[in-house]
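Review this chain:
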Amino acid sequence: MAYWLFKSEPSTWSWEMQKKKGDAGQEWDGVRNYQAR
């Protein structure tokens, strides 16, 4: 499985939050572009 890292504003998703999630990752929500869903 491929992994992707997308930039987000630090107030929305910080590096500390990413480290806490670890390998579990986080679901990507708030996508407005239909092709990106």
Remarks:
- The CA atoms of residues 3 and 23 lie 11 Å apart.
- The chain has a mean pLDDT of 75.
